[in-house]
Amino acid sequence: MAYSDFSLEDLESKFGIKNAKQSLFDKITPIQPSQRLIEDLELVTELSVRSEKAKSELIILPILLELRKINAKYFTIYSGDYLNVDDQLKGECDFILAKDVNSFTINYPIIQIVEAKKSDIDEGIKQCSAQLLGAKIFNENKGVHLEKLYGCSTTADDWQFLKLENNTIFVDNRKFYLGEVEELLGVFQIIIDYYKKVLI
Asked: Which of 18, 44, 80, 82 is buried most deeply by CB count within 10 Å?
């Protein structure tokens, strides 16, 4: 079953994964974007960016590259790769951030990012939730047991974060917006800092 076919009800009935809303981030320290990212995002406002492909390439990827630069290449970015765990959890992932261990294949997924189909962030949350479970099992099959896994559903303009912990998907109460990119970078940094502590 492809990740995109899952509903939250499927995750609960098939895998016992419950869901709840929660405030995920208490104190966010905004991060000033580089001049390059500011210019890239300003340029996007002059273009007709409608397709998922265009949003991925022109908005989402530059933000992820900015985070990689800030974090001294701590993680690597996979785009459009498959994360196949078994017949029930498989499919293509929009973006996977994984600890950079200089491996050709995906190693230790830490953040799943889903481009919301047809700009429907709720649909993206369902798919991202399934991918988080897939990433958890993928990691465990490699002997990596992480207490928390984070994900994000985005339309490129709106961003909503998720966390898988103790067999529950927690969906953040708050949405973040491209217009507040400093806060958005700050949230990602909180997540990356968590992994820097637990994935040594």
From this structure: 44
